[in-house]
Amino acid sequence: MVEFAVCLPILILLAAGVIELGRAYSVGVATSDAANDGARYVAGKTSTNNGPGVTNLCSLVTADLASLTSNVSCATQVGHAPPFVAGTDYTKPAAGQAVVVVYCGTSANCAGGLFSLYQSEVDVGVYYGFNDLNLFGGLITIGGTGKDTSSW
């Protein structure tokens, strides 16, 4: 009984850690998928129409993250390619909040340029404030990024 009483807290902590690791992996995949979908979508300019723009990008990313959170801060446009820096380029997300950061290359509002064959880089970052059951005091942010090149 004494050995069991000594080992039980360690086993519970180990099980909680494994569960949290699984949750963190799931959040990481969701944010990465949302960023990739957003970058692919916003790079959708063709020779006959402009790209969908940042507002439509935010709608798509918000829909992708609906099972994760409804608190999505969309979208901070930055003037440089990644890496995006928390505190400088965007506000670090609170627990349960997602923040979307976009770099549209030479395009304004990710809607494309004047020339249909002009290559412009599109980078989308999605950062989520992971609520870790206060094992580390809520200090963890998990992010995903997506990058695409559009034929603008």
Short description:
With 152 residues, the chain is an alpha+beta fold. The protein contains 2 helices and 4 strands, in the order ααββββ.
Characteristics of this structure?
single chain, alpha+beta, four-stranded mixed β-sheet, elongated
Count of distinct structural domains: 1
The level of helicity is 25-40%
Average pLDDT rating: 78
Order of helices and strands: HHEEEE
Shape: elongated
Strand ordering within the main sheet: 1-2-3-4
Overall description:
By secondary structure, this protein is α+β, with helices and mostly antiparallel strands. It has a 4-stranded mixed beta sheet with strand order 1-2-3-4. It has one domain. Helices cover 35% and strands 22% of the residues. It has 2 helices and 4 strands, in the order H-H-E-E-E-E. Helix 1 packs antiparallel against helix 2 (53-64). The longest helix is centred in the first third of the chain and has 41 residues, at 2-42. The chain has helices spanning 2-42, 53-64, and strands at residues 72-77, 98-103, 119-129, 141-151. The protein starts with a helix and ends with a strand. The radius of gyration is 19 Å and the shape is elongated. Residues 146-152 have low confidence and may be disordered.
Q: Topology of this protein?
A:
Layout: H1 2-42, H2 53-64, E1 72-77, E2 98-103, E3 119-129, E4 141-151
Parallel strand pairs: 1-2
Antiparallel strand pairs: 2-3, 3-4
